[in-house]
Amino acid sequence: MQEQEPRLTPTSYIVLGLLSGFGEATPYRLKQLVSLSVGHFWSLQHAQLYTEPERLARGGYVTEEREEGGRRRKLYRITDRGRQAVRDWRAEPTEGLAELRDLALLKLFFGAEPKELARVQLEAHRSQLAEYERIREEVPEDVPRGPRLALEAGIRHVRTWIAFWEDLAR
Question: Do 154 and 108 belong to one domain?
Answer without folding.
Answer: yes
